[in-house]
UniProtKB/TrEMBL annotation:
Binding site for substrate: S104, D193, N205
Listed Gene3D superfamilies: Acetylglutamate kinase-like, PUA domain
Residues covered by the PUA domain: 332-414
Functional pathway: Amino-acid biosynthesis; L-proline biosynthesis; L-glutamate 5-semialdehyde from L-glutamate: step 1/2
Any one biological process term the GO annotation gives: L-proline biosynthetic process
UniProt-listed PANTHER family: GLUTAMATE 5-KINASE, ISOPENTENYL PHOSPHATE KINASE
Catalytic reactions on record: L-glutamate + ATP = L-glutamyl 5-phosphate + ADP
Main location: cytoplasm
Molecular-function annotations in GO: ATP binding; glutamate 5-kinase activity; RNA binding
The name this protein goes by in its record: Glutamate 5-kinase
Subcellular location: Cytoplasm
Database matches in InterPro entries: AceGlu_kinase-like_sf, Asp/Glu/Uridylate_kinase, G5K_ProB, Glu/AcGlu_kinase, Glu_5kinase, Glu_5kinase/COase_Synthase, Glutamate_5-kinase_CS, PUA
UniProt record similarity statement: Belongs to the glutamate 5-kinase family.
């Protein structure tokens, strides 16, 4: 078994604790970024189809770490690898990037915790879920311990497909993740494997990380794996295989290049990464698949340096969101006063005080039209309140919501991010 991680008595960073995992991190009095080795410039293949598109500034980043990366090719979690990833994430945060981490490895952590070796063949679902249940707490404890060395607070978020397909639960998940980030806490996300059934499983963390990227309207999804990116052929079988630096469009030719996972420790191969890329790029974000063992891979990615394979967005995030909202049927309407209509046109949210009437029956998270006093539709968006609740707070100030309803989802009926002005 892997030796236990040294205990941590405080969340403050200490040189001794970091050095116990990585002797190169023993220096003190410097920022986390200063402790990192020089950015890698020579970790690439001799043959690369180059990237030519400039990388825009990254404000929100989702990092997905696969089981093969966390175990470094073994059957147990590799603490040093986890520390290297954590240090890069801390450095990215110091540069002002909001980061969410999607972490695989619960089953590997469960095996480690129980002293079990990986067996050949497929495990029964109850045994998989048992390992995930045992391992998830162990995995989170390790992440909390490691990030605590840098005084970074973490939050565990376990999701299922149902959380992201039902509109109300989707809104709750999004609001929770945004609140975590707004409080400078690092969300660590995984699928709730211990309780999910086939009907509500996302199925793999590549697709889960893509859904999280879209929930957060993140700029970039970085998938760290045991592969360097997408190749023109399988590099383990064909020495002439060339790493593709940039993919502008995912077509049948690109899908045909997808292969499987090398280690078999996780459920995601290149095919699931292509699926994730389609989800992300259609929503207006970029995605990079890169080798998790590459030094400073996260910082290279956000810095625009060539790393792995980058999948380019096919639309802007604004265009994608606008198409989505406009394509949905509205369930009701808010009739707004002239002041509220002017505010919407200047990019503001729709507040209860600006609503005169609520029309129709709808639930929180449904699509609702906004009409002016003449009945013309001036906007539409996703409501934070049901028709029943909205009727009770219409015309009232936002600071009165909790007193009237007994709870407060948000100070607005429709947030500007969830609204399209027509």
């Amino acid at each position: 078994m892997t030796p236990p991680t040294p205990s941590v008595s405080t969340s403050a960073a200490t040189a001794a604790q970091r050095a116990s995992l990585n002797p190169g991190l023993a220096r003190t009095g410097q920022s986390t970024c200063a402790l990192l080795p020089p950015l890698a410039a020579d970790f690439a293949h001799d043959s690369i189809i180059p990237r030519v598109t400039a990388t825009p500034a990254i404000e929100t980043l989702v990092v997905k770490v696969g089981t093969s990366t966390l175990t470094a090719g073994t059957s147990h979690l590799n603490r040093r690898r986890m520390l290297e990833i954590a240090q890069q994430i801390v450095c990215a945060r110091e540069q002002g990037v909001r980061v969410a981490l999607v972490s695989s490895g619960a089953m590997a952590a469960g095996r480690e915790r129980l002293g079990l070796e990986k067996r050949n063949g497929r495990l029964p679902l109850p045994e998989k879920q048992m390992l995930a249940a045992v391992g998830q707490t162990h995995l989170m404890a390790l992440w909390e311990q490691i990030f605590g060395m840098f005084d970074v607070r973490v939050a565990q978020v376990l999701l299922t497909r149902a959380d992201l397909s039902d509109r109300r639960r989707y809104l709750n998940a999004r609001d929770t993740l945004r609140a975590i980030l707004d409080h400078d806490i690092l969300p660590i996300i995984n699928e709730n494997d211990a309780v999910t059934t086939e009907e509500i499983r996302v199925g793999d963390n590549d697709n889960l990380s893509a859904l999280v990227t879209n929930v957060l309207d993140a700029d970039l999804l970085l998938i760290l794996s045991d592969i360097d990116g997408l190749f023109t052929a399988d590099p383990r079988k064909d020495k002439r295989a060339t790493l593709i630096g940039e993919v502008r469009e995912i077509d049948d030719r690109i899908r045909a290049l997808a292969g499987g996972s090398k280690t078999g420790l996780g459920v995601g191969g290149m095919s699931t990464k292509i699926q994730a890329a389609e989800l992300v790029t259609r929503a207006g974000a970029s995605m990079i698949v890169a080798q998790g063992a590459r030094p400073n891979v996260i910082l290279d990615a956000i810095g625009g340096r060539p790393v792995g394979t980058r999948f380019l967005p096919v639309v802007t995030q604004i265009e994608s969101r606008k198409r989505w909202i406009l394509s949905e049927r509205t369930s009701g309407a808010f009739v707004a006063d002239d002041g509220a209509v002017r505010a919407l046109k200047s990019g503001k949210s729709l507040l209860p005080v600006g609503v005169k009437t609520v029309v129709g029956e709808f639930e929180r998270g449904e699509f609702v039209a906004v009409r002016d006093a003449q009945g013309r539709e001036v906007a539409r968006g996703i409501t934070r309140y049901s028709a029943r609740d909205a009727s009770r707070i219409a015309g009232k100030r936002s600071d009165q919501i909790e007193k009237i309803l007994g709870y407060n989802y948000a100070p607005m009926l429709i947030h500007a991010d969830d609204l399209v002005v027509l």
